[in-house]
Amino acid sequence: MLYDHGICFVTVGTTKFEALIHEILSPSSQKALQALGISKLIIQYGAMEKPSFIPIRSLSIEIFNFEPNISKRYLSADLIISHAGAGTVLEVSRLQKHHIIVGNPLLMDNHQIELMEAMHSRGHCIGVASASALRKIFGDTDILSKDILQLKPRPKCRESALFDELLDLIG
């Protein structure tokens, strides 16, 4: 088990990313998170309608659409699963948290996939192209645990320099 009574925070920002939320709330994803040692799942579901779900035993789930200060959620989490929005990626990167970034292929200008791929190629996150790809990595939690442990935290730097680097990565 990677975490001991860990907290996983899932965020989609201010957009709709129904595929990610539905995948996270599926029984198989809940079981995978539990196998990683997650005991509390907190989901910020954004602009979509409030999802319905059935929690599996021994996994506490809290959901909400928006919150004025989401930084405290990042700080309390052991694992963060998010969309690839630049603001979210910047904040999680700054905090040096374990991070799984999920691309949203439905976006027209898909700079998020480019950002996710750039962070993944540097070893700063686990990047997956879609919510269905997330299901695949959840299929083997032993390999996923090893991959998470191999993530490299971003070096501490001025936030403006990091933002400039992110802009360079996405062109």
UniProtKB/TrEMBL annotation:
<keyword id="KW-0808">Transferase</keyword>
<dbReference type="InterPro" id="IPR039042">
    <property type="entry name" value="Alg13-like"/>
</dbReference>
<feature type="domain" description="Glycosyl transferase family 28 C-terminal">
    <location>
        <begin position="7"/>
        <end position="157"/>
    </location>
</feature>
<keyword id="KW-0328">Glycosyltransferase</keyword>
<dbReference type="InterPro" id="IPR007235">
    <property type="entry name" value="Glyco_trans_28_C"/>
</dbReference>
<comment type="similarity">
    <text>Belongs to the glycosyltransferase 28 family.</text>
</comment>
<keyword id="KW-0256">Endoplasmic reticulum</keyword>
<dbReference type="Pfam" id="PF04101">
    <property type="entry name" value="Glyco_tran_28_C"/>
</dbReference>
<protein>
    <recommendedName>
        <fullName>UDP-N-acetylglucosamine transferase subunit ALG13</fullName>
        <ecNumber>2.4.1.141</ecNumber>
    </recommendedName>
</protein>
